Amino acid sequence: MLRRRDSHKIRTDAIKMAVEKSEKGCVSCVQTYLSLAKENGASNEEIQQTIELVSETEVNGISRRNIIKLAVIAATGVVVGSAGLEIPVAEAYSSYWGTDTNTSTCCGIPQNYYLGSFGGGLTGLNNFSVNGATMAGFSFTYEYWAVEGPGSPNRGGRTAFDWGVAQASAAAYQWYNNGNAGYVGGTTIFGDIENLNPGWGSNQSDNRSVLEGFLYQIAQYNNGHFNPGLYISVLNWSNYFGTGYTPGRPFVLWITGCKTSFVTSPCSSGSSAMSQINNLLPTIKNIRLGGMVPVLWQWWIPAQFCNNDFDVATQSGNGHFNAETGSPNYLCSGCGVTGCL
To answer: Which of 130, 204, 332, 339 has the fewest CB atoms within 10 Å, measured from its CB?
Structure first.
């Protein structure tokens, strides 16, 4: 009986310590303590129940995001060294908050980074929040560029690939020469592909060539000074490129249209919105487009009473964002759009 009680105490204390370590961001510590709990007879159900209890009564200020991390670790069996898991702890990330276009933050939401428009096609323009850029800082401010499709009247006689190259060259030129270039230090340049941009149609082969040209030129411009990113929705990806398509080079995926404007308005309750976003992030991180994992998520776009664009990222964006690859090549389950439920 004494041994049984000792084992019970060990596994309970180990789970409590895992919760505390999750607050400090030490994922390896969480795994170690949950492994100890498993070794002393804890089931996944007991781990999850204890996590819920501790989160309410014994660890002040613990976030739902950390609870989700621990629950997933327990449910997947990662703590006992399960084989064949491609991403051991997919939910082990921090949240960084930002805005885009003409939006600067409000309502207690941090301005960790900012993404502003420098134009589109071959033309430099400004749709840029100087206030947002100033709040984020030089190394955390980025450019995005509206990429036009192969049917654009501005294409001229270029091949589809060369049309993508030309637009990337224009975007990179504006990084140095735009009227707001002095605010932008982040070296990831995002292509923006959406319905509002001219020229995107049903010819997936030409669409792919434009994207390939854009990604290629951003990556090689000025001896590789930049790395390419892409802002796109799941629906536009499947329509324009097809679910079986993988570009020839990696890109930083900035996803939109997945549960966008699904949460409490950030303009009315920033803390509530941030809590909800942290709960939804594990679902968003499971999305795959062209084998890429979302690094940024636009979770709010202009809506009634809150005409602003809010984003969250799982990287800090200090100087650049890094592409994250994953498998399968395409996955949209949980995104909340038609055909992906």
So the answer is: 339
Query: Under 8 Å CB-to-CB from 274, ≥6 apart: which residues?
Result: 95, 97, 109, 266
At residue 194, the 3 state secondary structure works out as coil
**DSSP state for residue 144 in the 8-state scheme:** E
Phi-psi group of 27: left, alpha or beta (phi > 0 → left; psi -120 to 50 → alpha; rest → beta): alpha
Is residue 194 a contact partner of residue 144, using CB atoms and an 8 Å limit? no
Specify the pTM.
Answer: 0.74
Q: Tell the residue number behind the tokens 């921090």, with chain if given.
A: 94
* Residues 6 or more apart in contact with residue 44 via CB below 8 angstroms: 74, 75, 77
Here the tokens at position 176 are 């140095």
For the chain, what are the domain ranges?
2-80, 96-313
| Size of the chain, expressed as the number of residues it contains | 341
Distance CA 282, CA 140 (A): 24
In this predicted structure, the answer to whether residue 83 has a pLDDT above a threshold of 70 is no
CATH number among 3.40.50.1980, 3.20.20.80, 3.90.550.10, 3.30.450.40, domain 96-313: 3.20.20.80
Q: Among 233, 234, 229, 232, which residue's Cα sits nearest to residue 252? A: 229
pLDDT at residue 81, as a whole number = 31
Rounded CA separation 279/285 (Å): 11
Q: Tokens 């707001």 belong to which residue?
A: 180
Asked if the model's pLDDT at residue 54 lies above 60, the reply is no
Which pLDDT does position 105 carry in this prediction? Answer: 96
Amino acid at the residue 156: G
Contacts of 277 (CB under 8 A, 6+ apart): 95, 263, 297, 299, 312
DSSP-derived letter for residue 333 is T
- Asked if residues 133 and 141 have their Cβ atoms less than 8 Å apart, the reply is yes
Relative orientation angle of helices 270-285 and 64-76, to the nearest 10 degrees: 20
Pair of tokens at residue 142:
């980025």
Q: Which of 58, 74, 70 is nearest to 27 (CA)?
A: 70
